[in-house]
Amino acid sequence: MAVVDPQGDRKAADASQLAILDSGENISFADYQGAVRRSVACMRDAGIDVVGDDRVDRSRGFPMIVYGFSDSSEGRTDDETLAVADACVAKFSLLVEGEYQTQPTSLEAIEAEFAKRKPVIVDCLRKSGTDIAESASRSEIELKVREILSSQGTDCFAEAGFVN
Description:
By secondary structure, the protein is mainly α. About 60% of the residues lie in helices and about 5% in strands. The protein has eight helices and four strands, in the order H-H-H-E-E-E-E-H-H-H-H-H. Strand 2 (about 55) and strand 3 form a beta hairpin. Helix 3 (about 30-45) packs antiparallel against helix 5.
């Protein structure tokens, strides 16, 4: 994993992204969505196809926009296309997206969603042959889910509709 220089990331960010980050408040969905829309518009303006930016996913317990972009665009190599897309995201939404997903309210929502889906995850693990207690911690469950996924191909998080 690459080491990220937060100041370097801030240098790439535009004023709208920095204003959201420097407000001193939790990032609202509207601010997050606006930042993502600016990234998407930048990519589209550069001729890169983007999909999913109008889809709001709540499987982690809070609203998120899950979008993707083409790895190729006319007149560019795949590496050049990726560099343009990365530059758009860095300029308009990278830091906002990261902060939005890891701010206390989002982490609390993830924990609440996990707790809600935990019985289904535990049941899936047991059906896959894993001996696990109802009282198992989230980290214990995550380890078992990864083991079952690796050995059997069963994704108990996916079966429970939980995105970790």
